[in-house]
Amino acid sequence: MEYRRLGGSGLQVPALTLGTGTFGGTTEFFKAWGQTEVSEATRLVDICLEAGLTMFDSADIYSGGAAESILGKAIAGRRDQVLISTKATFRAGEGPNNVGSSRFHLIKAVEGSLQRLGTDYIDLFQLHGFDASTPVEETLATLEQLVRAGKIRYIGCSNFSGWHLMKSLATSDRYGWPRYVAHQAYYSLVGRDYEWELMPLGVDQQVGAVIWSPLGWGRLTGKIRRGQPLPVTSRLQSQRVRELGPQIDDEYLYQVVDALDEVAQETGKTVPQVALNWLLQRPTVSSVIIGARNEEQLRQNLGAVGWNLTKDQVARLDAASIRRFAYPYWHQQGFAERNPFPV
Question: What is the domain range of residue 317?
Answer without folding.
Answer: 3-333
